[in-house]
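Subject: Interface between my chains keeps coming out wrong

I've been trying for a while to get a sensible model of this assembly. When I model each chain on its own everything looks fine, but I need the whole thing in one frame so I can look at the contacts. Pasting all components below, labels as-is. Any help appreciated, I'm running out of ideas.
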Amino acid sequence: MSRGPESLADRVLAGDVRAAARLIRLVDDADPSAAAAMRRLYPHAGRAIVIGLTGSPGAGKSTLADQLVAYFRGQGKTVGVLAVDPTSPFSGGAILGDRIRMNRHATDPGVFIRSLATRGALGGLSRSTAQGVTIMDALGRDVILVETVGVGQDEVEVMRLADTTIVVVVPGMGDDVQAIKAGILEIAQVFVVNKADREGANRTAAELEQMLTLTPPPPGAWKPPILLAEAHRGKGIAEIVDAVFRHRAHLEARGRMGVLRRERARREFLDLLRDRLLDDAIARLGGEAGVERIVGRLAERETDPYSAVESVVGGRS
Amino acid sequence: MSRGPESLADRVLAGDVRAAARLIRLVDDADPSAAAAMRRLYPHAGRAIVIGLTGSPGAGKSTLADQLVAYFRGQGKTVGVLAVDPTSPFSGGAILGDRIRMNRHATDPGVFIRSLATRGALGGLSRSTAQGVTIMDALGRDVILVETVGVGQDEVEVMRLADTTIVVVVPGMGDDVQAIKAGILEIAQVFVVNKADREGANRTAAELEQMLTLTPPPPGAWKPPILLAEAHRGKGIAEIVDAVFRHRAHLEARGRMGVLRRERARREFLDLLRDRLLDDAIARLGGEAGVERIVGRLAERETDPYSAVESVVGGRS
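Reply #2:
Try treating it as a single job with all components included. I did that and got this:
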């Protein structure tokens, strides 16, 4: 039997974490050989509980992730952690730090931790994260934690993959609460004020509360709870998990899980379609050399991008 | 003569700011009627000096932008300001604030200030910003300031439109310097420690210096200077402008301007091509209804996104 992508998929479905790790790496490298395996895995995914975890650097996300993993393991659930680094070559250290903090789970076969570092193409990050979630799901993980940093549009796209997203803040963020306003509200279902033993925790919680009051949810919609926690001591973890499951019950009671599933399927399909169409068009242009010919004329302003697109699309056989 | 897109372009080329404002709005709304006007403007653009300005909320970017505008006006240059809000409906207030801070230039016809708020599609922000720059350039602005918030991948894409990007930080950022590491280094050509009268300004400058030392530029490459400023008092502005022009001279001496122009033309062309190909493919599927049919099958896991893409691409006439 061949050791190609098909057998890689079979091994993932049989619960082989090394095969899953290899496939996640292929996906992260945008290796075309991953597609056949992904095709085979897709119908077997869709059962895991997917939880997003985001917040500024230093908010204690990794410590909280570590505690959540321990909590779920205590309930007998298997866990996958996808640490997403949407930024640049410069933050390799942060990822390494996360791994070290997760060390106590390193020998537990019920915990599978991987990092994604996809760079370059816009949308590449949410696409490879979606595929990473599918792989962990097909591997049979009960709970998948997707951890990311920051509040940019990329992270918002990544967090849309989660059923429930936890946003972690720390006391005395000041301007950071302003930054949070600017993108995270639409994806936050649970707020955690971590390091709540620090001064100002109640004030930060009150500021968040006030922020939520300014943009009240529509009637019957989920109102994100604001919870205090001290992740490094394990305080507040049960309450966070409880909030996640209450949010899930809320989605199910309102028939929202199906809507979320459709929205995700739609994004994943259109992302893949967009890439494939562009790849095909570039191939028809004669590859890189054909693109460079057009780029040269554009840089000299001998043509404009709109006319160039028209000529490519119109010239299609 | 008709008042359609062609005449809108003619009016922009004649220096009509109201026409430019209208076209920027059309572009921001992704209105297809903008394409004809953009096609006409494109060959007339490419002469302006484009300066990027980014940093965390509260770093004083708008005050600095205001001072830079005053400085360039003092040199007799016309200025365009594009304030880019890459985030969400929730930060409308910030943009309004910026407008108010810019108030002293409101009656100066040599200053043209516009906001972009493009949401939704990934890459939509850098695309509409590129078009906004082209419009201001074709309008005849000598200098274009592109101002944005934060350090996500979206903002990095936006800043790639600038010839020189200024990154503004404030003393005592703490974790924020960590966040900056994670994406901004690759686009920062000038660092400004603003509010330098505050405690810790020298330490923040030293931290930035150390950060740059950790990832030294290749031999002969530009080394970003770290400048202290107090924008609210106009202190340090001349030094910042000087650094911008030194960076520009550096680019020109190394023949890098042409490379930048090609890279930008390439991105703009491929972005437009990608969107156009997807629009055409969706039309061939029968529009929204056709997409929904596929999404329904995906959500039920009756097919997978890879096979669905294959059927769309394979079925092309």
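Reply #3:
Confirming on my end. Chain B touches chain A through 74 residues (CB under 8 Å).
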